[in-house]
Design goal:
0% strand; 149 residues; 5 helices; mainly alpha
């Protein structure tokens, strides 16, 4: 069989805002205007309409991934005859440039995911919560680990 060239365009999908909003399916998670405002960042605006058309479908997709990972882990444990019953965390990382809405996205995802029917425990961990300023790193002689002179 002849090797086919990998077409990166087939690895990704593109969706209009309208088609994406239809992926929310039957999932109904109500968010009030006050709740949307409460998770906004300094220069962000988050409307209920945006939550419903953008974030609810994203939460549905994430929920499918979480369920799939849990099911896979269960089958692997059976295969390995490993009676592992502890829940394995599902970690979602959000990356991007400064002031693009990462924190707002994280807060609204936390709120929506925690409202799913199976009520998962959703924790938010920010890098601001565990990084030290450069002065503190130097004082504690940890700056070498960050390559600071």
């Amino acid at each position: 069989m002849k090797n086919k060239e990998l077409n990166l365009h087939t690895l990704y999908t593109q969706h209009s805002r309208q088609s994406w909003s239809g992926f929310g399916g039957h999932l109904s998670i109500a968010v009030s205007e006050e709740e949307a405002k409460a998770v906004e960042g300094l220069n962000d605006h988050l409307s209920v309409e945006e939550v419903e058309t953008i974030y609810v479908p994203l939460v549905r997709l994430l929920h499918l991934h979480v369920k799939s990972a849990a099911e896979r882990n269960k089958h692997v444990n059976v295969f390995l005859k490993h009676p592992h019953s502890a829940k394995i965390p599902f970690i979602i990382g959000i990356a991007g440039s400064v002031a693009v809405g990462k924190s707002t996205t994280a807060r609204i995802l936390q709120k929506l995911l925690s409202r799913l029917p199976d009520r998962p425990k959703v924790s938010l961990i920010t890098t601001d919560g565990f990084l030290f300023p450069t002065a503190e790193l130097k004082k504690e002689k940890l700056a070498v680990k960050k390559r600071i002179s």
